[in-house]
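User: What would this chain look like folded?
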Amino acid sequence: MTTPGGVRIEILEDESLKVVPIAFDHAHFYALESDLQGIQSYYTKMFGAKPVRGEANTLNLPGGKLVFSKSDAPTATTLGRTLDHIGLNMDGADALAAFTKSAEAKGAKFYRPPRNSAFGQTSVLDGFETMIEINKGQRAYFDLKDVEPGLYLVDESGRRENDPPRQ
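Assistant: Here's the prediction, encoded as structure tokens.
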């Protein structure tokens, strides 16, 4: 299907799913043929993606695959478009901090530096017009018991958790 903003979504039936009704399988990336090797090298270096045996131009990450295809025209940035970015989760704040340190050492170009928030996120640009938001994982769903100590939770009125009621 195609959204009103032009994002194409591919839906595949998977009768083997037993626990959840829907699951992510893969995302398509389109790049100039001259960029295909570079973009795959980036995701391999930065995120540890591994080639999928028998599937050309396909890399595997925990949780899904990245499929790279040739585009005849240069691709536009994701920033400010209907599909503004892609997102990846790390397994908690410590993993996000370790990833950030590793990414810095590998020369990552940060769009947004790490910040302490409910999602504990940072954002990098892959050099091929895609912004990648990396969050500390919420282990499927947000659960307050998984929030690290010292994190400020703010409600819609700007009150932090345990703040006295406003007068």
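The longest strand covers residues 64-71. If you want, I can go into more detail on any region.
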